[in-house]
Design brief:
alpha+beta; Immunoglobulin-like; 5-stranded mixed sheet; 9 strands; 33% strand
Length: 150
């Protein structure tokens, strides 16, 4: 074999490997964005967890900004569950979030419910344990008309 033939083969081999790696990189990562709200508006500081439902991806976490928005960058394609946690609120989750190859995934607003409070404008009764503590302190209030939504 001549040096020219070896050089040509070497160049062809490099091109083949580069093409193979490019083919594996075709699955483009996406961006997943959403917002967290409560009955009063946006919820800053809520912890958001992006948990993969398929093997091979890592769990990710972030926190909502001052306007309740969050974003996950470079999310590999697959199916995910989003879990939202915030002190004073019930934990909320969104299952079966499908992330396609590349692009932008805009999620519906995630609405948090206040623990022992109101659920989107509907008054919720206090728990008996909480009422008994209040009654010991304030004995002459009609608690059947008390609501945290006011």
């Amino acid at each position: 074999m001549t040096i020219l033939t070896l050089g040509l083969r070497h160049g062809l081999l490099k091109f083949t490997f580069a093409f193979m790696f490019a083919a594996f990189e075709c699955k483009a990562a996406a961006v997943a964005q959403g917002v967290v709200r409560d009955p009063m508006g946006d919820v800053p500081g809520a912890k958001i967890t992006l948990t993969p439902q398929t093997e091979g991806h890592n769990m990710r976490a972030t926190v909502t900004n001052e306007s309740g928005a969050f974003s996950f960058q470079r999310v590999p394609p697959g199916e995910y569950e989003i879990i939202v946690r915030m002190r004073g609120f019930w934990q909320e989750s969104v299952s079966h979030v499908r992330v396609p190859d590349g692009g932008l995934v805009l999620l519906e607003p995630i609405r948090l419910r206040i623990i022992g409070g109101c659920e989107w404008g509907q008054p919720q009764p206090f728990t008996k344990r909480f009422l008994s503590r209040i009654k010991r302190t304030f004995s002459k209030v009609d608690y059947s008309k008390v609501s945290l939504c006011q």
